[in-house]
Amino acid sequence: MISAEKLVISKMTPRDLDEVLSIERQSYPTPWSRHAFTSELTANVYAHYFTARIDGTLVGYFGMWVFFDEAHITNIAVHPGFRRQGIGERMMRFAFEKARELGATKMTLEVRLSNHGAQSLYRKLGFEDRGIRKGYYSDTNEDAIIMWKDDLSPDAPPEDKVQWML
């Protein structure tokens, strides 16, 4: 696990795009284009994109749209060399916090039917399956699971972190 102090999450800028696109190409069969990211960063008023860095190295990124009381995760990726170290979870928890600051009370996303690792993380974070989008991913015609988290309020502390007064 990467320590909280080492992971720095900040707003994505166009200067980040070369590194973002490198991770994007390593993570998805049909990666987003530079134009798609640039449009999100410069023209979409609902879009909020962030990078995650360790010692200056880009290790992940995510994007979301926030409108009214809903947030929608548009994409999220962790560099293959940094996966399974808690970075994806930390980015999602950061997304919850930012979405709440922007007025969202719930969050949704789509995930590939074959992406069991991501589904497991999302369920751990309180997302529930709500439906299937048939043929959602045009590159493979794979279905997507629609997942929702209905309550973005801060999580209760884990049981082992609670101090009971006797």
Q: What is the structure about, briefly put?
A:
With 166 residues, this protein is an alpha+beta fold. 27% of the residues lie in helices and 35% in strands. It has helices at 17-27, 34-43, 87-101, 116-124, and strands spanning 7-11, 47-54, 57-67, 70-78, 106-112, 128-137, 142-149.
Could you explain how this protein is built, in words?
With 166 residues, the chain is α+β, with helices and mostly antiparallel strands. The protein has a single domain, classed as Gcn5-related N-acetyltransferase (GNAT) (Aminopeptidase, 3-Layer(aba) Sandwich). It has 4 helices and 7 strands. The chain has helices spanning 17-27, 34-43, 87-101, 116-124, and strands spanning 7-11, 47-54, 57-67, 70-78, 106-112, 128-137, 142-149. Strand 2 and strand 3 form a beta hairpin. The N and C termini lie far apart (33 Å).
